[in-house]
Amino acid sequence: MKRLKFLFLEDSPTDLELIQRELKRGGVEYVSLHVQDREAYLKAIVEEKPDFIFSDFSLPNFDGLSALTLAKEACPSTPFIFVSGTYGEDAAIQTLTRGATDYVLKDRLVKLVPALKRALRESEETEARRKAERDKFEIEEQLRQSQKLEAMGFLAGAMAHEINNPIMAIIDYARMIEKGESDVEKVKRMAIKIQTEGERISVMVKDLLRFARQEKGQFEKVTLTHSLIKMKSISEQRAKMSKIFLQVDTTEDVCPVLCKEGQILQVLLNLVNNSIDSLNQKNEGYYDDKRVSVFAKMVDMGNKPWVRITVEDTGVGIPPEIGRSIFNTFFTTKEADKGTGLGLSVSLSIVKEHGGYLSFESVPMEYTRFFLDLPCAV
């Protein structure tokens, strides 16, 4: 067992010697810190950062419950064991419910080392779980960013084409002005058109940059119909290039939700991109009813208000045997250069983090509907 730093809150030198003797008999090596009052105890837990705390229950000018409370505030993960001679059943229940790790009676110190080893084992297991959770979070963040880059790759070409049109218009109007157009009213109209086209480019670029930015902010109240408008601004040109009608209905009033908007926008773009791919897989050219419909509405789930966003397409659909696997990481039916299989698995992870649900229904060669459900902000 590695050499640890133990803090003893004990007013009796004799009892302290008995406790330490029992630890030595059990083969425990440690650095001893001994305090007897509140001031010294508080200084020790803040400055020394002990690995373990042993505390008497009753002291002349201090008490064990107060010591436990201070420890939970200053070092909540540090194991805390009461070692006391005055300890009834009610006191035992009270200390454990307040967060003590264990308790040992002074006339039964033979139980001290087993209690210590059990507490240390539990502490190590807790730390291992925390590390695993941190690693899992970091991996999920990397997957989200990878998927976001994948989505941006699909959108970049279409966005460049969309921006090129207003740029060419701006250049043409500027050349006309440069030639010395004498009609003042005509020049004003051209200037207004230049401003309009410039603002159009600005909106598209801002929406794309907002989506591209790695988001680590706090959850905020967001009206999802506004997010749908941003999603349309980013993805509309890709739909146009595929001869797809992207219909986004934002007419219904919906409650705000608590979310990280960039992440929800990522989910929406994933779903729309998948719909575009499905429609092109059915027929790359134009055909009647080649469309993606996106709309938001209020629904009741468990007697509570939720917002449901539906993304519907009339593409190839999802066969039942494939539907069972579509949310699995790296599962994809697309060619290697057209998808990594991250989109839906990352989307599901994001939606779960927001306390929501992501589901779908589909009839092959007829339609697919994805449902993004998020609870209304309280």
Shape: elongated
Order of helices and strands: EHEHEHEHEHHEHEEHEEHHEE
Can you give the helix content as a percent range? 40-55%
Structural category is alpha/beta
Q: How many β-strands, per DSSP?
A: 12
- What order do the strands of the largest sheet run in, or round the barrel if closed? 2-1-3-4-5
Biggest sheet overview: 5 strands, parallel
CATH superfamily of the largest domain: Histidine kinase-like ATPase, C-terminal domain
- Note the total helix count: 10
In terms of DSSP E residues, the strand content is 15-25%
Distance between the termini: 50 Å
- Low-pLDDT runs of 5+ residues are none
Radius of gyration: 32 Å
Supply the number of structural domains.
2
For the record, what CATH class of the largest domain applies? Alpha Beta
Enzyme class: transferase
Domain Response regulatory: 5-121
Organism: Leptospira fluminis
Pfam families: HATPase_c, HisKA, Response_reg
Task: Provide structural commentary.
The protein is an alpha/beta fold. The protein folds into two domains: 97 residues, Response regulator (Rossmann fold, 3-Layer(aba) Sandwich); 240 residues, Histidine kinase-like ATPase, C-terminal domain (Heat Shock Protein 90). The chain is 52% helix and 19% strand. The protein contains ten helices and twelve strands. The strands form three sheets. It has a five-stranded parallel sheet with strand order 2-1-3-4-5, sandwiched between helices. α5 runs antiparallel to α6, α5 packs across α7 and α5 crosses α10. The longest helix is centred in the middle third of the chain and has 67 residues. The chain is elongated, with a radius of gyration of 32 Å. It starts with a strand and ends with a strand.
